[in-house]
Amino acid sequence: MSPTSAPSKDRAGGAAPDSRKAVRGRVARRHPFARFLVRRIITALLLALGITLVTFILTNLVPGDPAAANLGQRAIGDPAIVAQWRADHGLDKPLPQQYLVHLSGVLHGDFGQSQQSHRPVADDLAEFVPATLELAGAAILISLVLGVGFGVVAALRRDRLADHILRVTSLFGISVPTFWLALVAFYVFFYRLQITPGSGRIDPGMTPPPHATGLYTVDAALAGQWDVFASAAGHLVTPALVLALYTIGLLTRFTRSAVLEVLGQDYVRAARAKGLPGRVILFRYVLRPALVPVITVAGLAFGSLLSGTVLVEAIFAWPGVGQYAYKSATSLDLPAVMGVGLVVGVVYLVINLIVDVLYGVIDPRVRLS
Amino acid sequence: MRRRQTAPRTGGLIRRLPEAWRRPLAIAGGVVAIAWIVIALAAPVLAPHDPLAQELPRLAPPGPGHWFGTDQLGRDILSRVLYGARVSIPLTLLLVALSVLIGGLLGACAGYFGKWVDETIMRLADLVFAFPTIILAMVVAAALGASLGNAVLAVLVVAWPAYARVTRGLVLGIREREFVVSGRLLGFSAWRSLRVDVLPNVTGPVMVLATLDIGTALLLLSGLSFLGLGAKPPSPEWGAMVASGVEVFDSWWVATFPGLAILTVVLAFNFLGDTLRDALDPRTARAIKERAI
User: Fold this and answer.
1) pTM for the whole structure
2) Which one in A79, A284, B83, B205 has a CA-CA gap of 20 to 30 Å to B247?
């Protein structure tokens, strides 16, 4: 990271004719990167507000009657019970008022009560979100390491055997239906070969590690419970790999074409003509511009990872937010759907913010524009 | 120099195609894609059984008579897989065409005009992006009722921002180039500049993305059906067929063959898209031509 921040430091240093304090104030005001950051954060906050509005509107557009979905057949026939139920859930108030109530609740960490589990949605989410974050986090790590690595190798070995193998493999990766691959992996590795642990996050009968982050692998490592760690990691490997395969393929392809594109630039040829060693050219002249589009793709890919968890969690009985979302949507559990949309939306927003900032760090043209 | 390159590109594009199509990946992709389109057209002739007919034996393993076996209702899986092409392929193509049109146009405007147009469109895109596809689609499907048509609509709502972002990025990269600036200095109106100088330089990559997206769109549609939010039984939709295979875990053939059908269609279009990308994208094409490494 240190060479990437060099240009901004130069500029700050160049504008230092007066006393240091005054300069610092001016830099804070004029520093393009700081301004870029502040603008991004404000946009993100507005977007978060937008997410609350959209989740609210979307779930209220649903013409299905949540009372019908949640009350029994006989209770539906009794208008008094239905009215009571609607009043209990605030559904009898006008929509803008419902939204304001919802928003102020959200700001206080109150997402309402799930109509299915009869528990506060926040409690449900607190239970399910860490499981999904652990799964998606493991998958994105695997994807970044393997995808970018494979992509660079494929570009450098263009049209040789390694490139052809990686190309077919990555195309295969983005073409496999995740839900089907999960099923096949579960059938082959667990059911037939019995080399991977079955469904869930941990071996049955094992006590989960003491709660610190909610990520079993991290919690177990923090508590020094290495047998629990091994079990949690073992359970994580297959679903994470299944989930990552698509993103690995995606990142391999994008990295390859991004690196190839940069390799065709005149300044790279100039660097070669100058006699710079290949490694210096790769790391200083090629990877930095090439990584800019790759980072965008990785940020976007995280969204598809979160989507993919719905499909993968279904097969591996992973007790995450994906399964929760599916169950809530099919039963028209409005508070739960809003809670899921909100939390997943905000997680994704933060990822996007990080991507934008990284974008600015890597490519000075972005933060100066 | 750039300006000169833009003019003859349409001719070069056609000239480059035959060479590209000779690559093994393109041939494999083309053959499989054409085969599936033929299957979709000729399914009633090709299918050995009625895809909805329930006959004994149930859950018969693959063998003579039922080459892909039968499912838990005794329906012939081969026939259902063949008929499934008629369900998934046309809907997927329609979906992609609509996404390109909507997303590409909005993205080009965002990139070219910048300022508030850009902010509005891209924040809207971000807002849509903020919802993982399937979660948003689940809400839409729950709202409108589970059906393939509504699944298409749901995927469309979440698919256009990808095109908007890519188109915007490409337009941003081109907007300040000399040939665009010189066009504007010559007095081109914004729309003319966009149409003559900018769009021809971004259609290649966007079309490649569209070809690649045919696969992704099919994956999404079948994923929704897998979750029970798309095709309804007894429709022979591949995703729904895989879902029915989950219930009969032991009988591996019930889920395997529809899954392979999805895989081969998506793979074929991805092979084609990959070839197209190399052939049409002027930047990679140049890199390949010059043997830059």
Assistant:
1) 0.78
2) B83
**CA B138, CA B232: separation in Å to the nearest integer?**
15
Asked if residue A76 is part of any domain, the answer here is no
Buried/exposed B100-125: b ≥16 CB within 10 Å, e otherwise: bebbbbbbbbbbbeeeeebeebbebb
A38 within some domain: no
By residue range, what is the domain housing residue A245? 126-330
Of B129, B227, B267, the CB nearest to A175: B267
Question: Is A191 inside any structural domain?
Answer: yes
For residue A20, count CB atoms less than 10 angstroms from its CB and return exposed for 0-12, middle for 13-18, buried for 19 or more: exposed
Tell me the shortest Cα–Cα distance from B243 to chain A, in angstroms. Answer: 9
Residues with Cβ within 8 Å of B45's Cβ and at least 6 positions away in sequence, in order, are none
Partner A, chain B 214-233, Cβ-Cβ below 8 Å: 215-216, 219, 222-223, 226-228
Exposed, middle or buried by CB within 10 Å (0-12, 13-18, 19+), for A53?
Answer: middle
The domain tally of chain A equals 1
Q: Does the interface ipTM go beyond 0.95?
A: no
Structural contact between residues A338 and A53, judged by C-beta atoms closer than 8 angstroms: no
By the 8 A CB rule, do B59 and B70 touch?
yes
Q: Is residue A112 part of a domain?
A: no
Asked if B186 is an interface residue toward chain A (Cβ–Cβ < 8 A), one would say no
| Residues ≥6 apart with Cβ < 8 Å to A346 | A48, A51
How confident is the prediction along chain A (369 residues), in pLDDT tens digits per residue?
Answer: 333 333 433 444 444 445 666 655 555 556 777 777 888 888 888 888 888 887 777 667 655 566 666 666 667 777 787 788 777 767 777 888 888 877 888 888 887 778 778 888 888 888 888 999 899 999 999 999 999 999 999 998 888 899 989 988 998 998 999 999 999 999 998 888 888 887 888 888 888 888 888 888 888 888 888 888 888 888 999 999 999 998 998 899 889 888 988 888 888 888 888 888 888 888 888 888 888 778 878 887 887 788 788 888 888 889 898 888 777 766 767 678 778 878 888 888 888 788 878 877 777 776 665
CATH number at residue A209: 1.10.3720.10
Query: B268: closest CA among A248, A252, A175, A169?
Result: A175
Nearest to A325 among B129, B135, B283 (CB): B135
Is-contact B51 B236, C-beta < 8 A?
Answer: yes
CA angle B234, B238, B241 (to 5 degrees): 55
Beta bridge partners of A120: A113
Name which of A28, A38, A47, A25 is nearest A360 in CA terms: A38
**Chain A nearest C-alpha distance from B218 (Å):** 9
